[in-house]
Request: fold
Amino acid sequence: MLRLGAIVTALWATAAAGEVGVAMHYLRQEVEPPPTLSSLDPIPADEGIAGAELGLADNATTGAFLGHAYTLAVSSETEAGALVAAARAALAETGLVIVDAPAATLLAIADLPEAQGALIFNVAAPEESLRSEDCRANVLHTLPSLSMRTDALMQFLAYRRWTELALIAGTLPEDLAYAEALRRSAAKFQLRIRAEKTWAFDADMRRNASQEVPVFTQDLPEHHVLLVADEWGDFARFIPYNTWEPRPVAGSEGMSPVAWSPVLEQWGAAQLQNRFAVQAGRGMRPKDYAAWAAVRSIGEAVTRTGQADPAALRAFILSEDFELAGFKGRPMTYRAWNGQLRQPIPIVHPRALVAMAPLEGFLHERSEMDTLGPDEPESACTAFGG
Amino acid sequence: MRPAPAALCLALCLALPATAGEIWVTNERDDTISVIDVETLEVVRTIETGDRPRGITFAKDFSRVYICASDSDTVQVMDPDTGEILHDLPSGEDPEQFVLHPDNRHLYIANEDDAVTTVVDVETRKVVAQINVGIEPEGMAVSPDGKIVITTSETTNMAHWIDTATHTLFANTLVDSRPRHAEFTKGGSELWVSSEIGGTMTVFRVADQSEVAKIGFEIPGVHPDKVQPVGFRFTEDEKTAFVALGPANHVAVVNAETYAVEKYILVGRRVWHMEFSPDRSLLFTTNGVSGDVTVIDVASQEAIRTIKVGRFPWGAAMRP
Reply:
């Protein structure tokens, strides 16, 4: 295995004389979304890929001044097995890989013999376990974990002293995971989830929302904010303004903690949004942002080191010399103990930014951004030498 | 050989009483200019502009004022006495910042959305050249002899060196993340570039484009991530630089000979650009988030007044 790794690395290092060639490969597993009550807001077919392509264009402009030539190949498969096979082929060509796939597929790719010594960016799987007990030394994460997002939301609620909460969660695995993250974050910031209900209705809410939701929420105890866990956008869009008590809605709907949103315009974000909209013809979504950040991380590391070798880039990216300008107001770096990109988390509603976490007053000895998500002492990740 | 703007200013300044003059401030989210009287330190006029005014500069004889109306995709030419827009200049898309060549005729404009620097002849009102630069060009500077123009690109993280005779790039130098502003100093022998996200200033020797210094900042009680240098200016003797530190809400005083930071002055929120009074005794900083301008006494290096202007003040220019 070691020998194979060495051979592959030697191949990756090959580039045209006088120029640094930087080949990247985007591997996507197409996941069929579950049926939802509304057909508004379909998931764009190029979600993620469009972000990577913008990152490529950004890198290419810089590279043109430095003699660095970037390329991005894309493989998209519906089956995990087919994507792993595609990953094998891709890894024979390059050690710089962006994976847009569920956690299990990501781990299958990361554990391939061909992937040892590669640098893989996770842009789609938010699971905490991938940053903790299931972390891999060859995987970095540009998508924030679930807890980073829910911690951001709870920071804001604590900041506003909206301490009493109620929770409605869907039944899909993603909903359950998000609800669990909300519970953990509420406990972390000493907020109280006073009651929980499960949304398991199969009624068509476009017809019945106004009748169903008031009754459904009538027996909730007194609360300041109603949390919803509905990660696929099934029922929660019908909750706001239909609750029994007039309460703001937050979580998957209403006020949401996200990696990115088209409503961001401060900190130079308007420029990134414009570039993306011109290229993709739509607004930039969280996965687009994560993919952009992955490609830009590679670009930044190549620019500063003049190398395209995955091991050299990984070392630089995890060092104190690396920083990424991510249009969220602070320089972004990677957590050296688990490979997660540190980043501010915008808390948004569909029309504007509400607040940017970390909020003022939440302090940390290293970086205030490390108040979002599990911190080093809580992490079970050992692959990074921790 | 050099036109020496310092000497030019000296001549103009001497002809005027020490406190006369105006500071023109563009309000990015109000589509206006606030005109501050240097003597009374009050806003005496508010003038409407195109959409999202940012960069602002006067013609050398102050008969015209040029305004980057970013969202109108144009550079407006205004009669400063009447506030009337005389005409627009073709500027390329989303002009953010520009610099007027010492020849008083050529504007070098950073087109933020287009990765291009546009050169416009203000007399013929025609585009003379467009030069491809890095992503999100912003900072613009011209050497005192007019031979070099600098564009900094925020996402490419470079200072691009333009030969004004050929309108081609002759060097591209990396700086820290998100370079925002550039200025020549010491007779054009040094170039300073601020890096907002990097939190540093890079000093280049112009002769060979080599880096001679990097200046960092450290404000007690302010997290390093929030220390984001943007606009800066040198005193007339070029011994001191004042550097706006964005969301750190401070202006740093830097010794331009030793590159040591000597002092931090508390100003308004998200301090962005700045301009001196005609006699250079006062410095006016635009504070975007708090919507005001801080007046700093240059001799004592202390903030002496806050002046309310429009929403999100951005650029500032002096009119004697």
